[in-house]
Write a structure and sequence with these properties.
Elements: E1 2-6, H1 14-26, E2 32-36, H2 42-54, H3 58-79, H4 84-111, H5 116-139, E3 145-147, E4 155-156, H6 167-182, E5 187-191, E6 194-197, E7 202-204, H7 210-220, E8 225-230, E9 251-253, H8 254-262, H9 273-279, E10 283-287, E11 296-299, E12 308-324, H10 334-344, E13 352-354, E14 358-363, H11 369-376, E15 381-396, H12 404-411, E16 418-422, E17 428-434, H13 438-450
Parallel strand pairs: 1-2, 1-8, 2-5, 3-5, 4-6, 8-10, 9-11
Antiparallel strand pairs: 6-7, 10-11, 12-14, 12-15, 13-14, 15-17, 16-17
Helix pairs in contact: 2-3, 2-4, 2-5, 3-4, 3-5, 4-5, 6-7, 7-9, 8-9
């Protein structure tokens, strides 16, 4: 059995869904789970709709919702043309879903209040709509395909907008539901991104979470392979939107892929690799627009032997927090206290660099910084530098690669580099640059290592 995840651009319109169906057909006779995202841009639109509604702008929310409804109706019409029964049935389902969504929007615009729980509910419509239509389009080609609701198998805690998957429950529910659905079908389609608490309240796995859904399903169902179908032919040497001359990496290790995605490469959600590691399931990243290209195969660390720099990732917008305490000199427990504060506000720290009296840390800009600073100020002096970017050079055995630091820092010697850190895992060297220098820095590094 294989799991195939199709991202937003891979289901954006009829042509894309046509390609998806061709790819699914090609996987026969293997049983296949198809995990779909919302159509490209739909999650962003739903966020806007929720914003309008909670700001009391019911009319703006309705206009946007009507546009989305029309887009989905047109898609159903075009995909199922010629099968009147199926077209009508699908359009009815779409209309029904929009009437429920509009009801929620109305309530929110009256209350002018938007809880995380309501937001998760609104966001779920993107994936429910895409999977409903694509399910019918697959059926229409004669493939035996069942529909499964991800909310009855992807069980999370009650962080509604970034639910923590409950692995034990998922490993129980996924095989139960899939074996029932596969009894009379060759393909099962379900939604990425969404889940539910054990009590049944809808949650999401966070932005870009469909990759993670696919990996969780793959792990729980003991899949032979997890395929991430996207708009690039695999993991590249860096983001092709930043550098023109990137190339696809044919093989990389779980650790390298995990590190790359954790340090900013959007091609994979940062949590995607962990479930695959759990059961040692190969992950393939493939281009739905050019399915014949080989893409990237991600394998366990002991199967990948090539040392040296494999790729460059970056986080375009990070914030550096500088914590200064004169008492740190010879004092115990300062770092413990420091990290307790970040932990209390659920903020993860990426890079750390310390001196005798100073600690600098990088965090995402949307972290609860005001609260964190207020609390740190009880025992330290804090300053914050914004408009920074973090760059990571990733590859196997970097610590043992003689001359690596010289190559990296010669390539970027024209720029101000701070907070240099060699990853504890030995597969990354990271540092911070001014955001305005990011493009130039990444291009110089790419030239040094890959051109
Ligand atoms: P999907 O909608 O299929 O999930 P995403 O937009 O989330 O697609 O991820 C694909 C994008 O990731 C690419 O278009 C590319 O711009 C970006 N990206 C960032 N870093 C890399 C990288 N190292 N290799 C390939 N793509 C990358
Ligand atoms: N639709 C969701 C998002 O845009 C999940 C995903 O595409 O992975 O974030
Ligand atoms: Mg994505």
């Amino acid at each position: 059995m294989i799991v195939m995840k199709f991202g937003g651009t891979s289901v954006r319109d009829c042509e894309a869904v046509g390609r998806l169906i061709g790819i699914v057909k090609g996987s026969s006779p293997q049983k296949t789970v198809v995990v779909v995202s919302a159509l490209a841009g739909v999650t962003d639109s739903l966020i806007k709709i929720a914003g309008f509604a909670s700001g009391g702008k019911a009319d703006d929310a309705s206009v946007l919702s009507a546009g989305l409804e029309e887009r989905h109706i047109i898609m159903a019409d075009q995909l199922l043309a010629g099968n009147e029964l199926l077209v009508n049935e699908t359009k009815e389902s779409v209309k029904h879903l929009f009437s429920k969504l509009n009801e929620i929007i109305r309530v929110i615009s009256v209350l002018e209040e938007l809880s995380d729980m309501s937001m998760a509910k609104i966001l779920s419509y993107g994936e429910i709509l895409s999977s409903t239509i694509i399910h019918k389009a697959i059926l229409n080609t004669g493939i035996k395909c069942a529909y499964a609701d991800a909310r009855s198998m992807i069980i999370t805690d009650s962080h509604y907008l970034k639910g923590e998957p409950q692995t034990d429950a998922i490993c129980k529910k996924v095989p139960e539901l899939l074996s029932e659905k596969f009894m009379d079908n060759d393909v099962v389609i379900t939604q990425g991104f969404i889940g539910a608490t054990a009590e049944g309240a809808g949650t999401t796995l966070g932005r870009g979470g469909s990759d993670y859904s696919a990996a969780l399903i793959g792990m729980a169902a003991n899949a032979d392979e997890i395929q991430i179908w996207t708009d690039v032919d695999g993991v590249h040497t860096t983001d092709p939107r930043k550098v023109d001359s990137t190339r696809s990496i044919s093989v990389m290790s779980f650790s390298e892929a995990a590190e790359l995605s954790f340090f900013g490469a959007k091609v994979l959600h940062p949590a995607t690799i962990q479930p695959a590691v759990e059961k040692n399931i190969p992950v393939r990243v493939l281009n739905s627009m050019e399915p014949e290209k080989q893409g990237t195969l991600i394998l366990s660390d002991d199967q990948v032997h090539e040392n040296g720099v494999k790729a460059i990732s970056f986080k375009e917008n990070i914030t550096v927090v500088n914590v200064f305490s004169t008492k740190m000199l010879n004092s115990f427990g300062f770092l413990t206290r420091l990290f307790e504060v970040f932990g209390k506000y659920g903020t993860s720290v990426d890079l750390i660099s310390t001196s005798e009296v100073n600690v600098s840390l990088t965090v995402d800009p949307e972290s609860k910084l005001d609260e964190i600073i207020a609390e740190l100020s009880h025992f330290a002096v804090v300053s914050v530098s914004r408009e920074k970017s973090q760059v990571s050079v990733v590859g196997k055995n970097l610590r043992e690669t003689t001359g690596l630091a010289k190559r990296i820092f010669s390539a970027v010697s024209d720029y101000n580099i701070t907070m240099i850190s060699q990853g504890a895992s030995d597969i990354n060297v990271s540092f911070v640059v001014n955001r305005g220098d990011l493009s130039a820095v990444v291009n110089s590094l790419h030239k040094e290592f890959f051109e």
